[in-house]
Amino acid sequence: MSPMPTLLSVDALDFGYPQCNVFQGFSLRCNAGLILLCGDESTGKTTLLRLLAGELAAQTGRVAVGGVDAVQEPERYSAQVFWIDPRSDELNPTTAQAWLDAQAAKYSRWDANALAVHVAGFALAEHLAKPFHALSTGTRRKVCMAAALASGAPLTLIDDPIAGLDKPSVTYLTQALNSCADQPERVVVVAHHAPLPGVRWAHRVDLAGLGR
Questions:
Q1: Is the whole model's pTM more than 0.85, yes or no?
Q2: Residues of 15-49 as b/e, b for ≥16 C-beta within 10 angstroms?
């Protein structure tokens, strides 16, 4: 049996803010599956997601998805990545449905049937006509995660997934993540301070003690 191909490659990544180094020589290799970035506050979880998304630029190092380099081929790289910060003010004037429609047009592997399942699982139907500024913290996050999971993006990035979620939604999220666990040619990276019970993680990265 041939080895599983590496889908996400991070090589010798250096990044820091003024007077604060976050990553020095950080490297990571991931095949398809669910990847957990864990660690306490200020260990760089969200920063790493933003670096993987191309929203931040590393001082040195390389990030690639499916062999596509984030710096050398930024447009091809961006087309393979799903990332949204549900706290972003840019979402506020847009209705949830209009934003979801825009995501469907953006991602070539978008799965409309999966989105319908996630909308039902997260109980979002009554909120789709509302603008983001009228949504609660938890509902904003659920809309963004429904899109992330339905996007089919080869690299899907999710930050702090259960913030503001009710218990039924946390239970559904576990099921939804596990439904992505065996999808070929897809890496789903979730940043959270601790493992979510019941999720079939393929790999766990503890940022408190790795590559820093």
A1: yes
A2: beeeeeebbeebebebbbbbbbbbbeeebbbbbbb
